[in-house]
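ok here's the first one, seq then struct tokens
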Amino acid sequence: MDAASASVLALACASTTARLIGTAVDCDNAALRGRQRALAGAMSAAGVGPGSVVAIVAERTPDTIAAILAILGLGAAYLPLDPQYPRERLAMMLADARPMLLLGRADLLPGFAGNGIAMLSLDAVPADAVGDLPPVMEDPDALAYVLFTSGSTGRPKGVAMRRGPLARLIDWHVAHPRLGTPARTLQFAPLGFDVSFQEIFSTFATGGTLVLPSDAQRRDPYELLALLERERVERIFLPYVALQALAEAVAAGGVVPRMLRDVITAGEQLRITRAIRALCSALPGCVLHNHYGPTETHVVSSHELSGDPANWPELPPIGRALPHVRVRVVDAHLDDVTGDAEGELLLGGDCLAAGYIHRPELTAERFIERGGERWYRTGDRVRNAGDGVLDYRGRLDEQIKLDGYRIEPAEIEVVLCRHPAIAEAIVVAMNAMGGKRLVAHVVAQDAQADEVSLATLLREHCEATLAPYLVPQAFVLHVALPLTASGKIDRRELARGSDETTMTWPAHAPLEQQLAGLWQQLLGLDALDIDANLFDVGARSLTVVHALTELRRHGYRSVSVVQIYEHPSVAKLAALLRAQTSSAAPEITAPDTALTSRAENQRSALSHFARRGGDTR
């Protein structure tokens, strides 16, 4: 590793301000470095050093960022844990990664008891503790982090990322004529997704300012727009679905973030919609950067869109490989294709992770040797569009890219088939007006099973094991699954859904009827009980965003994302809207705890508006 690459972690606190917006916390550079020293001292005393893995309960705070800097400075790797994940899934992650220490806020640590791992409370380390920053470790093969992605075997897999590729990525940022300049940058991605490293360290290494939004601001695109404008944010990293939600909010009357000049998107295929064109047109000089790269490599290619957005292609390419990345496009026999033929993308060069932590058989399956070099098989189909530019053409397998997440349907199918009531299960992504939905098609052991009761059982079964983004929004009962002419299950038939894009709103109908119609269109339902919990019938955080935008378009401008979560039925939402529009402002009944329980379980999902899914770009 050269001197510039080796210094990337040392640059992390060079001239940077980290702020948590929405609270009283304002952490400047000196305070951040002081906290880093204190935490490094406490972890060093606990035995953390080169080669260690430290699990950290992931929260978007300056304290957490200081802890990450301290972990990396000690030569260790960090493993972010989402406290919203089911205990069983977190236990699997801890068992695979084998961290020596678990770090987090005192009130969150009890939820991780019983895993046999030593725990250190962030609150137990005094703010004025004194410690020395250790010399930055420069071994390019040492691990920086372990991030878990969906696994086709029914078990998540932990990508063990080396420091070398990350240093090369930050080097590229620093040398970039636009991204290498200091900027006020939003830290939007959850720490469990690799883009968060890119957000944090590219900002630190270029002497920028990192703006940390609250969870409420991240969930609500209107509040997020207001934050971007108020804090004069110049650079944001957003998955396509979040960018689209932000653009739709601007189109529906949200504030235009006038200082925004660079928008970096990744996570799933970028599509230039009417709303995105309008947003970028309202930001003079703004450049839209389309990045691509799976968690196993982080960013490997980039394409920039500038000039008049009216001239941008609807489906932009994923661009050219970064300087430290090698690419090959191969056929089913792993031989190079010729010309502009489509094939699987292989990635090589100084961008590869070490593999999947403590999973050598899985590592050998995806990280292969060809021609004396190591390559990662992406499973993505691409085409060489000429001059080194790559077009993304979809997946070669059944993997789903949804809301920025990389989802292996087999992982969910395995969990469903563990339920004694299920004989077969297939999971697909279906189109609906509110965006794609994850739908489970099942065959029950009992031919007389009731679909509604079975759906309730299966949803609870999935929620006990799977991360929120992996829980299907709907369960469809079949006597038998449809087959193709060759006798295989017809996934395409099961995945067919509505491609409509125009929402209908009966102007003179009662409010309950208007709201029921809205949610039926968003969720792809034929009927909806006005007292039904919307989160029991498939609503999720992104559906809430779409509903909010529609409500604001029709005059309900006071409603917020949080209020929809607190009133998760048509009846309760109608009462809220009437109260907001009535001059008498009648008293609103307090939210029903039982009714909102599932909504609360979903509230963290928008915080993973990402999940590149942590996962694939």
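and now the second one, same deal
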Amino acid sequence: MVSDAGTPKPSAPRARTRAAQYVRMSTDYQTHSIDNQVDAIGDYAEIMGYEIVATYEDSGRSGLNLAGRPGLQRLLADVESGQADFETVVVYDVSRWGRFQNIDESAVYEYRCQKAGVRIEFCAEQFANDGSVGSDVLKAIKRSMAAEQSRVLSQKVFIGQARLIRMGFRQGGKAGFGLRRLLVDRHGRAKGILAPYEYKSLQTDRIVLVLGPSEEIATVRWIFDHFVRTKKTELEMARLLNKRGILSDLGRPWTRESVHSLLTNENYIGNSVWNRHSARLKMHQVRNPPEQWMRVENVLEPIVDRKMFDRAQSLLKVIYRRLTNDEMLAALSALLVRHGALSTRIVNNAPDCPPAARYIWRFGSMVRAYELIGYEPSTNCRYIHVNTRLEIMRRQITQDLIAVIERGSGRAAHDPDTDLLRINDEFTVSIVMGRCRVSGFGYPRWLSKCERRPLPDIFVLIRMRPDDLTVRDYLIAPSNEMAGHSELHTSNGARLNACIFPDLSPLIGLSERSAVESAAWL
């Protein structure tokens, strides 16, 4: 434009479109690393005239489902709640959005964003995500390819694990009473006995089972011999062991389930049995049929004679034949008539009733089994059920955090005695779940649980949403900042509000170490 005086007027700068970026990395450290994705998205945004105003990140997270991805969950929550101040989300490619085994699931999350007025764009794909027929076809193909790559990788991992099992190596799981896990190098040389919750740090190392202390070995032999001679039930055997003051391999009193696990463990006759259960591609764990089990004989020195072990298995089949669902529920109903009420303790102490663990395995939870026989459990029972589920979630979050730290440059170890994480041998962290309690006026509250002992250096409270199913946010604060805050509100003052984060990335950042060689001396 030219003014009346003939002097050109400068054109107003074009307004840049506000956009967010979503980045995810599982274990692809090179092509799909977070930094590479951010760089590619930044170049794309510059060309398209976008201003990146928000970042949603899932570092060290599998793309197989939504459950373990707080970054994507937060993105969906912000978009659907109207809190998002952007109109586009840029993702590196279709596989970073997810490797969902049902490609419709990937489409659903994208549709939820589009329905709320937010577009999804893939900067590294060769198609424009514009809703055209060609674009949709290519995107569906890409989603199928992303899902198939996970299936192929899962099969390769399974084949590799099976090969190591046939070589006599251990693939996860606790050693068991009377046994220990021995760490060996690539040449088979012993490196030391692993303590509980200790794991190998080198990919080339392997783990084998060896015999444990002589007193534990003697106890294992006594359990088999006494069970076969006296034909006592597993519950009676557990009571005998507890009366003697003997603790299980977990350092706890014996239960019917722990005795059953010992009596059916083929490790005690020198065999290794693998693939009894599986949970591939982040699916629910399933019990595999016996023909799919992998059994390798003579991988370690036997503790129990084979004839004694076979007699114990025959006796178990007679005492505990497999019950149908109706038979299990009938036994539970009869127990209810006798006691007038039900609880996990009552069920586990009834010799003529399957243990609570079998009801949970068969029906999903004790609450569900109670409902099927028309028993209304107490509020406390439902409270315990929710707490159990949250404890499983807490353990998974803790394990994920340890894995992310160790994949980086830090070290993390869990102390089972104090339930604290020790990071880089420098500071301790306590991670607890915060159930959401809604007041009569509709305001959420969370108990901080910060009074626990020993006092950690850093306190992490995972604040749940009112449904107690999804994480709202993470409070990450020094323990001394929590003094006097036994109950937390939505807003707790400037000091604690500054400690609220959408994920655990600040804690991961604290664990990172810089190499000495990178320091510059002036």
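notes on #2: DSSP finds 16 helices and 20 strands in the chain. The chain has four domains: 17-152, 179-319, 325-377, 388-511.
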